[in-house]
Amino acid sequence: MQALIFDVDGTLADTETVHLQAFNAAFAEVGLDWFWDEALYTRLLKVAGGKERLLHYWHVADLDEADGASVNDAVHAIKTRHYAARVRDGGLPFRPGIARLIAEAEAAAIPVAIATTTTPADLDALLQTPFGPAWRTRFAAICDAGTNHMKKPSPDVYLDVLRQLGLKSADCIAFEDSANGLRAARAAGVPTVVTTTAYTSQDNFDGALAVLPHLGEPHALIPSSVPDEQPGWVDLATLRHWHLHALTEVA
Ligand code: XBP
Ligand code: MG
């Protein structure tokens, strides 16, 4: 196991409720009488990429898509401003186990990377507080909506991260929260651990190495789903064990 590749939204942090709030704040600011509730947003999340999701909604709302395309980017830029304002200054904590696992990887000289469909601005707002202004130096590769236009489930962001790392997909482990993300990582051949969120818990995760509620902490154990299996947390030793098992399964 040579590298860990992290998705961002729903994986590093449970961000989608803040994205939803930011979309609704943008609609109010531009005078659109739309309000996306969590049930609708859960369905809309099947479309990866905020711009693509918004354009899809113009169509669903039976509006002339031509109108949608012209104002879409402007509304999405306003949404991004609202999202950044909400998460800047550490407004959103990492999910259990994320900071611990990244620190473990760094201590073991295992590179960590980011493969996301969100924007560089969202990344900056989310990561500059926990990792400081030089947060980008903590990641050996970062692919996002600024580097890759094809969104998940396209494998593009993962293929570009692997190219930048100079590693084979089978030598890495990806962390994802959604079916789109799992499909993207699997299409790139990367063994993938899924940590679900309220928005994605009903997704299909066939092909995942493991599907967990979160990565756990010594003080916040992962409840065991199997009788007499020890509850615990995912550390590098666990990942190495799962990774070796995945390699032997493929062999
Ligand atoms: C999840 C997404 C993103 C976010 C919204 O990204 O699909 O589009 O929902 O962010 P990830 P943007 O691959 O990190 O799970 O509006 O910036 O797209
Ligand atoms: Mg995600």
From TrEMBL:
Keyword Hydrolase appears in the UniProt entry: yes
One Pfam family linked to the record: Hydrolase
Entries under Gene3D superfamilies matching the protein: HAD superfamily/HAD-like (3.40.50.1000), Putative phosphatase, domain 2 (1.10.150.240)
Keywords: Hydrolase
GO molecular function, one term: hydrolase activity
Transmembrane segments: none
The enzyme's E.C. designation: 3.1.3.-
Name of the protein in question: Protein CbbY
Organism: Paraburkholderia aspalathi
